[in-house]
Design goal:
The protein is of the alpha+beta class. It has a single domain, classed as Beta-lactamase (3-Layer(aba) Sandwich), CATH 3.40.710. The chain contains twelve helices and ten strands. β6 and β7 form a beta hairpin. α3 packs parallel to α8 and α3 crosses α9. The longest helix has 15 residues.
Length: 332
Amino acid sequence: MTNHPIQLTRRATLRGLAGAACLAAPARLWAQDAGAPSDFATRAAGLDQLHALVISKGGERVFAEAFRGPALSAPANIKSVSKTLLALLTGRAIAEGALDGTDARVLPLLGRAPAGDARDALTIGHLLSMRTGLDSTSGGDYGAWIASSDWVDYVLTRDLVAEPGGRFIYSTGGWHVLGAVLARATGRDLHDLAQDWIGDPLDLAMPIWVRDPQGRYLGGNEMAVSAAGLARIGEAVLSQDSAIVPQNWIETSWQRRARSPFSGDGYGYGWFLTEIDGTPVRYGRGYGGQILAVAPEREVVISITSDPTRPARSGGYFGDLKTLMSDILQQV
């Protein structure tokens, strides 16, 4: 697979410069209360894998700091948080009438003949909730998948290891199929949709990313968004900004449909669902420790970018990030 370098258009470059100017002021905007627990900023600074942390409360930015790595306004690989963004695009496609809804069958939308087995029952909702029943293309199977000549066909011809709509099977391949469905249904490529439906309303540049051998942008991985931009997306989700989030889509996306066997957290449509110290938190999670978290009852958004080359297992660095988020929710 050939990785496509991040390229910015003139318009995107101007956006980036504007964002950098806005963030030129001192990044640390938060002051610890006298009786608060240990300083979350100190904990964050001590995590050598963590690059940047941005926090907002009630739509107001309360903390933003790049401890290492890319600047706050510089695009960073958000890895599988791309799945959360793709779920937002799917909601918009449904609202625009390009898709009939989450019960729409996948194979006809791709112009494929019936498979003659349970694959024929595969729906958009199954792709969004990672309950396709198809064997995973992630983990140890990822390399063989992206080395194949047709990524969509490879996914759809995987062995059925469960019934569609059954158990949670983490797999980026299903999200790539969803991206192909969106592109075919709208007549536009995934980058164009991301820029038009997420980037432009929030004044964010969405750089190009990896494509498959047929030229389709990878669905569910490798998108690049700055830490500040990711927080802006979270703020739009929290406020249910109609320019980004169709009516009722977040409520639908945050309904528990599965459970991750790795973290034990629930899963909706592109969002993990958990509680941290009794506070409901909905989050997207990417390899290496990329996080977009929303705590709706507290009106808090947390954006974290990390080294995308190092793992972040539930019992390791990702556990450290959950502790950090606990500190944040106690202190802001």
